[in-house]
Structure formats: C-alpha cells, structure tokens
C-alpha cells in the first residue's frame, strides 16, 4: 500500500532531482534513501530464522573456532 506525501524543496533541489533522477523516478529515489532510517526489520525473527539454518550455523561455528584458534596461536 502506498500513501501520497507532499514535500516542499528548494527550486534548485527540485530541478536537480528532475535532471539527474528523472521526473517519474523521484518518489522511488527518495523512498530508497529514507527507508533504512525509518523502517526497521524484525531482527529477532531474522536471527531466529538464521539459527534454524543448521548448515549456516555449522559454518559459523567452524569459522569461530578457527578464529579463536588463530587468536590463541598469535598470543603465544
């Protein structure tokens, strides 16, 4: 679902957007810039999904063990 939003910007900004982004692409451009700052994913659900991926978890555990071993060897 989409909602219409009216923005007021300086004439130079508007002309730059039309010239560089294109007259029919400004909304998408602004949405892509703003989205990461205002829409936060459900991290808990994402982490739970990752934890259910056994192959990924095994690879992560192998990586962690190798990293800890390398750190231990470097400290000696």
Structural account:
This protein is mostly helical and 76 residues long. It has two domains: 1-40, no CATH class; 43-75. 72% of the residues lie in helices and 0% in strands.
Helix fraction, binned, reads over 70%
Span of the ends, CA to CA = 59 Å
Question: In one word, what is the shape?
Answer: elongated
- Say how many strands there are: 0
Tally of individual helices = 4
- Please tell me the total number of domains: 2
Report the radius of gyration as a whole number of Å.
Answer: 23 Å
Quick synopsis:
This protein has helices at residues 11-20, 26-38, 43-52, 54-75. It is mainly α and 76 residues long.
List keywords for this structure.
single chain; 76 residues; mainly alpha; elongated
What's the SSE blueprint?
Elements: H1 11-20, H2 26-38, H3 43-52, H4 54-75
